[in-house]
Write a structure and sequence with these properties.
- Helix content is 26%, strand content 28%.
- The chain contains 7 helices and 19 strands.
- It has helices at 3-22, 25-47, 208-214, 243-262, 283-295, 319-329, 367-375, and strands at 52-58, 62-64, 68-77, 86-93, 99-106, 114-122, 127-131, 135-139, 146-150, 155-160, 171-173, 190-196, 218-223, 230-234, 267-271, 313-317, 337-341, 358-361, 388-390.
- Helix 1 (3-22) packs antiparallel against helix 2 and helix 4 packs antiparallel against helix 5 (283-295).
- The radius of gyration is 34 Å and the shape is elongated.
Amino acid sequence: MTATGVAVGLVGVITVTLGLILGLAEITGLGIAMSVLVLVAVVSVRLQGPSLDSTRVLGSTRAVVDHTVTVHTTVTHTGSGHSRPLRLVHPITYPDGHTTTARHSVGPLAPGETGTSTFRVRMPRRGICVVGDLRIETTDPFGLARRTVAGPTATRITVLPRIAEIAPPEFRVEAESHATAPPSNSFGTEFASLREYTRGDDLRKVHWRTSARRDELVVRRDSEPVRPGCTVVLDVRGGVHQAATFERAVSAAASILVGASKASRPSRLCTTAGFDSAQATGHHHVDLVLGMLAVIEQGPERIDVPVRGPDPVIVLTTPAGSTSLGAAMGSTMVGALTVLFEPPDGRSDQVDRDDPEVIRVAADDDFATVWNRRIGSHRPPRRMPTGSGLR
């Protein structure tokens, strides 16, 4: 029975009781009529329940925060006679645990007729959103009794962090050389070393000054600028983050990785909790990492960053965590770019604001704007002990 049916049934029982106590046949008859009406409604929906086929299709099982997912449902009446109006009930559980219910009406449907319902679910935060088991309800004309038919089972939607359109990280590795000749000024290449002239070499590459000194022809061996991948280190320690700075750091990590992928650069995600995605390229790799970022939570205070190799490093942390993280990573931080997400209270002066290797993002700053302003400045490459620098 519906809530209305329960209320009418209770009133009927009370009315019958009062009529019998007071000896009033009219009141007793009214109570009996109400009780019988409820009984007839229950029997009716049980005997004349609809025969239905239903499908539910989601526009995507992945979405980005603040975007929407379309839910399209079709219901086909496979029985005889016209169905009663149907109500489609979709329970929805959001990543923060908040629940709601989407209700939509369809019908009545003739035999073989199909009804449709479409609505959108907005994703307020990252995590897993569950569109629960579909229930199809039908009631009697008075709304006193209800019958429920099970529809498609629950579907999970992975809600990814906000992904901003940012410039891809522009790193450049300078070739080390012990040669005494100056670098070549050839556009698009860098001087790597000198070697002896061999027949067929381009005479334009002859280094005449060194050739004259050695009394033999030598040519420049140039190399293209190396544009390596990047490693993003995400600080997930709960003690250094507030909820707002953590979400902004996660969003920044996703944005940088997607930007690197669009530029066909290999990328890698590491966290202070020991996670390492390993370096790779391609959409599949980025999808896996984004799926991990969708559900990542703040972790332990220990620092276990598995960063190895020559690739440039981008560290995402807060002013409160930069010193301890830098000490733990040691030489890996040489030449690294550190992005500091300042807390809303703004009390974070322990890091030099003029440090060229630090990008500070205030609580009211837009990360994409700050990042693009720095990356778009086209600073010349700096020679580092590790051979890497930010351009």
